[in-house]
Design goal:
By secondary structure, this protein is mostly helical. It is 78% helix and 1% strand. It has one domain. The mean pLDDT is 87.
């Protein structure tokens, strides 16, 4: 379990680097780079490529984490990505960070620790049934499709929020494919993994999630897309961990109530952190 948490933290840090660098590259795109031109512009941008390398690292670390621990532990730990983003803003971009943001970051860490300690997520099996795959796939695939359609119209902030939610659901679904493909790789080798469908579903979910996330980042500020991305993923992942893998939590109603409150507090702290963090990626005037 400890190893899974360590790998999950490494994945969160890598994803923070990815999100920050790719957002900076995306918002710096010239106005003429729209539609199909935007991806062609981004794949030539050095900062976006750096983010891509960090994304690969995040993928590997997440796979190792999911292989070594329950999905209901790994995915919530990825919320620490927001903390790493704040630290990178301070250390790398040299931005002044408000005390309220640091306080919210501390609250996220404490609430996450309480949730994991009290909820006691554990158990599960590596191979979901075909019936579970179909039902979960239809439910989540339908929700992602509806949100994507809703994200085609409206104000930029609304579209960014809706597309971020769709991306969060996609990343949660992608995690289930990643966990299954990793288990198959460990049990049956590369040939066994390549002859089973989850690895190909993983590729499709990764491409879909990337496109939805890039669209959300391009349309609105991090304060809109980031908290929705970060909270939607673990909520959906917890649902999928029970639905597909049979993971379970504490049997104590009191502990379960505390865990729910801790998760709600974490979500609130994430929202506060997003609102109190620097609004753009420009260095602070007196930072040098």
């Amino acid at each position: 379990m400890i190893l899974a948490v360590v790998f999950a933290l490494a994945a969160a840090f890598s994803n923070a680097v990815n999100l920050l660098t790719q957002h900076k590259a995306s918002i710096s795109a010239p106005k003429k780079e729209r539609g199909w031109r935007l991806p062609l512009y981004l794949i030539r941008h050095p900062l976006w490529l750096l983010g891509g390398a960090a994304a690969v690292g995040s993928f590997v670390f997440q796979a190792l984490a999911l292989h070594n621990g329950p999905m209901s532990v790994v995915q919530p730990v990825l919320v620490t990505e927001l903390i790493f983003v704040l630290i990178l803003r301070w250390v790398w971009i040299h931005q002044d960070v408000a005390r309220a943001a640091w306080a919210a970051a501390s609250a996220v860490c404490v609430a996450l620790a309480v949730f994991l300690a009290v909820a006691e997520p554990s158990g599960g099996h590596p191979s979901p049934t075909a019936r579970a795959w179909v039902s979960a796939g239809l439910a989540f695939g339908g929700a992602i499709s509806v949100l994507t359609a809703l994200g085609r119209a409206g104000s930029p902030v609304r579209r960014a929020a809706v597309l971020a939610a769709a991306a969060g659901l996609t990343w949660a679904l992608e995690a289930t494919f990643l966990k299954t493909a990793t288990q198959t790789l460990a049990a049956a080798g590369l040939a066994g993994m390549l002859t089973n469908w989850p690895v190909y579903a993983l590729v499709g979910a990764t491409i879909t999630g990337t496109l939805l996330q890039q669209a959300a980042l391009h349309l609105g500020p991090l304060s809109v897309s980031q908290p929705i991305l970060i909270i939607t993923d673990p909520v959906a992942s917890i649902i999928l961990s029970v639905w597909l893998f049979g993971e379970h939590f504490t049997n104590s109603p009191a502990k379960l109530a505390i865990a729910v409150l801790a998760f709600a507090a974490m979500a609130a702290a994430v929202t506060v952190l997003s609102r109190t963090a620097p609004k753009d990626l420009a260095p602070s005037p007196l930072s040098g």
